[in-house]
Amino acid sequence: MYEWNEMVQLMIDWIDDNHTSAPSLLRMSNQLGYSPYYCTKQFHSLTGMTLRDYVWMRRISSAALELRDSNARILDVAIKYGFSSQEAFTRAFVKAFEVTPAVYQRGPRPIPLAIRVEVFSPYHYHLKERDQMVKEHLQEAEVKIERIPAHKFIGIWDTSSRNYGDFWRNGHNCDEICGTLESMSHLKLPEQLGQTAGWFYQDGQKGYLYGIPVAADYAGEIPAGMECQNIPESDYLIFFHPPFNYLKNNGEVMRIVEEKAWNFDPTSMGYEWDEETKQDYQRHFPEGYGYAVLRPVKKV
């Protein structure tokens, strides 16, 4: 039933691996074993965009990141990402981001980059494999302490959302928000993972947040629809599970970690919850870091 979700995800992987070499629909469809017609039809059905538009936006977004992070000549970047000339690249860049490549390279600012599409999730995997899958052994959540320096957090605080799913169902445009924050990834707080979610507390009410932590002295542009708040230095108890198989075990790992995080007594480690730092963070990078919930504490 979900064969095409998996096939389209393979198409997305193939595009990301080949987007500097003018990916060929025919070559890709041959590798997947389906006709170009069915590939393009199913891609549009599951992503809501044409294959051609997706390839174009991923290439122009990757080119923007290269301009942001290097001193490469604009012409060289244009040719690398398949544009026939610097003029053609400039026209495409302005169409996508309303700024020229030269102006953006001199002064990078938040722009809505095209993020990678995901159409094959743990939900589909469990439905597809529920009769054959053998559950892997998962370990208990570990606990450690980490000090995070004072910083600013740029993002959205939503009092009517309680979790990640609620947040994106509550009228927030995932592609636009994540794409804009991706363009600010070079500003992220050192040692942090970039885009970050979590929970905050306001007038006794718990809400959900999404954004990016940046240095405490950041004085740059704040994207439209987002806020910037100062977060004080604090120790954090980190409840975490090491890297795991996202498709098979994401839901169970999150349950294990969050159950321990919300029921832990910090006095057993000589701490109490820090009520002044009114937000908790999540770190979610299954293949690299794992999953973690960070809760601020202070010494008893």
TrEMBL record:
Keyword set includes Transcription regulation: yes
Residue ranges annotated for the HTH araC/xylS-type domain, each copy included: 9-107
PANTHER family, alphabetized: ARAC-FAMILY TRANSCRIPTIONAL REGULATOR, RIGHT ORIGIN-BINDING PROTEIN
- State what protein this is by name: AraC family transcriptional regulator
GO MF annotation list: DNA-binding transcription factor activity; sequence-specific DNA binding
List the InterPro entries. Homeodomain-like_sf, HTH_AraC, HTH_AraC-typ_CS, MarA-like, Tscrpt_reg_AraC-type_HTH
**Gene3D superfamilies named among the record's database cross-references:** Homeodomain-like (1.10.10.60)
Keywords, sorted A to Z: DNA-binding, Transcription, Transcription regulation
Keyword Transcription in record: yes
